[in-house]
Each structure stands twice: as structure tokens, then as C-alpha cells.
Amino acid sequence: MSDHSHAINVQDLFSIRGKIALVTGGSRGIGLMIAQGFIEAGAKVYISSRKKEVCDRVADELSAIGQCVSIPADLSTEDGRQHLVHAVVEKEKALHILVNNAGAAWGAPLDEYPESGWDKVMDTNVKSIFFLTRDLIPLLEKAASPGDPARVINVGSIDGLKVPSVENYAYAPSKAAVHHLTRVLAVRLGPRGITVNAIAPGPFESQMTKWMLENFQEKIEADCPLGRIGSPSDMAGIAIYLASRAGAYVNGVTIPVDGGICIT
């Protein structure tokens, strides 16, 4: 017989009310979808992005629905990461959720793919996730409690699971690296009360997918078993699940959110 003395309140199970979150690249695209979902679910959310005026404006808009604070920073640089870490440390004693979403892409033909583009993508997508996460471990540890660990959610891509059709040579390997870094950190940080998981989005509306959707949206939808691109609620839902008590025992996995594209 099951023990009914531990009956679960489903509202509590998926609740992130009162949690403190940081979403990098939170002013647009997938980062904005997650930030808005978190705020609507009652979390206090810090968003970071490179352009100060955009970051501030989006935080102002999101503040109409809940608590949102802007901390502009360029996370591809050590100075930018340090600025963000110090700003969060100054404002909060603990951080329950870190969403590493800031990313870059660079498309160019194989024969002329620039080293500068390669370095920009790898620095932003892989290196910055590692160092930002590392430097926020003390704040994350303080947010952890028995049965409800702190969460790191890395945004990978289905391009890190399958070979993309576009010529974006640094991007796909960078996202595969994010998925494996997620596993490595999950094993190291689990004993410290922090889970690390990754979301691998398929096609969603963002600055990064703008060109592809303008040119190939019909084909992308035709190739998807569900026949559509992702919506903001699809992205908010998976992030809230991973950040809530419902996802407390999930650690070191990469979850594709792509309507089944990467298995076709």
C-alpha cells in the first residue's frame, strides 16, 4: 500500500513561487519565454543581456506582471561575468535557479569559416556557462534544501543532438559541449545540493532563428511530427517543471523540446 500521509499537493509540486532566478540572455527569444514564465509563476527573476537599454526596457515591461530586475552584462568576457556575479551577490543571499541561456551563433560556408566567429560562439556558449556557474555555486548552495535542490538549467539545442542543415560549424559542437558539460557538472554538483540539466530546444521564434524561419518555416513545420514550431508556453512549461519540486530528482539530462524533430 502507498503511504497517503505524504499526499502531494500538485499546486505545490509545480510551484516556484518565492524562488530567486537568474536568466541570462533573458531579454528576448527563449530566455524571455523562460523569464516571463518564471515571473508569472511567482518567482523573482533577474535578467541579463548585453544591451543595457533593451535589458532595462524588458525588465520594466515584465515588472508589470511580477518581480523582474535588469543586470546588463556581456557574458562572453570575464569582466562581464564578474559584474553579473557581484551584482547578484549584492542583491541576494541565495539563488535558487540559474538559467544559462545567453548564446551566439555564426553562419558561414565551411571554406571561409572565420576563427573569430568560432571563438565567439565557443566563448559565449560553452566557456561562459562554465565560469558563470562556477562563480555562482556559493549562492546556489545557500538556496538548496533537503528534497529541493538549487537548479542550473542550461539551454542547449537539438543541433547538439543531430547535424543541422545550415552551415553553422561552431554552433552545433558548442551545444553538444553544453549537453556534456551539463552531465559533468551534474555529477560534481549533485552532492552539493545543486542539480544541472539541459533543455535542447527545436525551432522557436528568436533573433537566432529569424533567418531560418523567414526562409524555411514551412519545411521545418512539415518535418516536425507535431507540425508546428514551439510556443512560449512550451518553453516556460519545461523550465518551470525543471525548476520546481516536480523536477527535484532529475539530474544530468538533456531534454529535447522540439515536437519530435530530432528523432525523425
Description:
The protein has 264 residues and is α/β, with parallel strands linked by helices. It has a single domain (10-256), classed as NAD(P)-binding Rossmann-like Domain (Rossmann fold). Helices cover 44% and strands 13% of the residues. It has 8 helices and 7 strands. The chain has helices spanning 10-13, 29-40, 52-62, 78-91, 115-143, 171-189, 210-223, 232-243, and strands at residues 20-24, 44-48, 68-70, 97-100, 150-155, 194-201, 254-257. The chain has a 7-stranded parallel sheet with strand order 3-2-1-4-5-6-7, with helices on both faces. α2 (29-40) links the parallel β1 and β2. The longest helix has 29 residues, at 115-143. It starts with 9 loop residues before the first helix and ends in a 7-residue tail after the last strand. The relative contact order is 0.14.
**Low-confidence runs (pLDDT<50, min 5 residues)?**
none
In the residues, how many domains can be counted? Answer: 1
By secondary-structure content and strand pairing, the structural class works out as: alpha/beta
Order of strands across the biggest sheet? 3-2-1-4-5-6-7
CATH architecture type: 3-Layer(aba) Sandwich
Shape, principal axes of CA atoms: globular
Number of strands: 7
Determine and state the CATH class. Answer: Alpha Beta
List keywords for this structure.
264 residues; alpha/beta; Rossmann fold; 7 strands; globular
